[in-house]
Amino acid sequence: MPINHHRRGLPALAENRLNVGIFGLGTVGTGVARLLLNQRELLRARTGIDYRLKAAVDVRWGHHDLDLSAVVCSEDPAVIIDDPEIRVVVETIGGTEIAYDLVQRAICAGKHVVTANKALIATKGRELFKLAREHHVDLLFEASVGGGIPIIKGLKEGLVGNRIISMEGILNGTSNYVLTKMYQDGMEFDEALRQAQVKGFAEADPTLDISGYDAAHKLAILASIVSSAVVDFDRIPVEGIADITKLDIDFARSFGYVIKLLAIFKDTDSGLDLRVHPTLVPGSHLLASVNNELNAISVTGDFVGNTAFYGPGAGQLPTASAVVSDIVDLSKDLLLRNGVGFCNRTIDPCDSPRLAPLGEISNRFYIRFFAYDAPGILAQVGSIFGKFGISIASVLQMEIHGKDNYVPLVILTHQAKEAAMNEAIEEIAAQSFVWGKPLCLRLHR
Asked: Which of 18, 87, 145, 294, by CA, is between 20 and 30 Å from 181?
């Protein structure tokens, strides 16, 4: 029996051609256009489909070293949305407000959408997945996490037969570059951040990156895929790297650790343990050697065991590569599928996974604070930790006298619950012999 290439009244790909429209010709959008134009024959040879960039919409048409003579260029989104020949829309505008409106309009017009916008998927995914399901179209977002690293495809396809036990990764290139320079070159935080901005690895306003929220957007997406339900971004505990000093980098090194900003997923009996925070990673661990702007994600499945994904987490061409991989997946679905849902079936927009209570999660901790250099101080600190059932594993005092004879004191603990540690830190911070705010980090587990 011949395959029916029609689904729900939509025409099959005429002459095996797929027309594409792009919203936003900024850095990533230009990369997508470049790939579709320059690699058109390569894509046709590998897929049997002719991918044609038919239209592009941007509000600021600047200089592009692209031949767009065969492309409809406009500032009006209707050029794409109202064109029945354009089956797939690429959103590379960024942000959430304008992008959300345009993606909604495209979906309602019966068009499939591919986006690189992690903030959009992390914060508006539930609404958009519901809308896509109602209109029998797909919303793909491989490029939203890890740039050119095929982590989403890996989870949805290569590891589809596994229950994912844990994931942990370096998902933000800016913060990783800053921490690398602090570790390798002895820079303080501000100096390392300025260098990241000069080299183009950090935005003029780097808040989203160094606060940890960019990594949390990506963690929400990965956790949603793994749990087949929508993880609400605002339920993920997030800590950034702005309070880490060269002193902390040196203390961590003395204990055999490297500080990395990690996004963490663990499937526990109490629910999903989801967190983003700076972590002391053993120097021998795979993630400790991931430096500069590179990303890496370690994934453990119940059948496959430990796997790792590594590569450029951002950039015009790697991200464009991931966008086009989604376009190719969609084109194959359009050719072969007959009346069944597309890939957004992997996330149920009406469901949410159970999250483990953060206070009940146990970790080992690194605590650094400035204490007055006098006899008996360490005993008082130990007494406070003992009050909350926290056992001290190691203590290190650096012979550096800071303000008014205060010295840096570092404590590593054995396993302790988050709630108990928070109470202990609050009580320590209130002591008269402590100057400034204590820093509390977790050790890798």
From this structure: 145
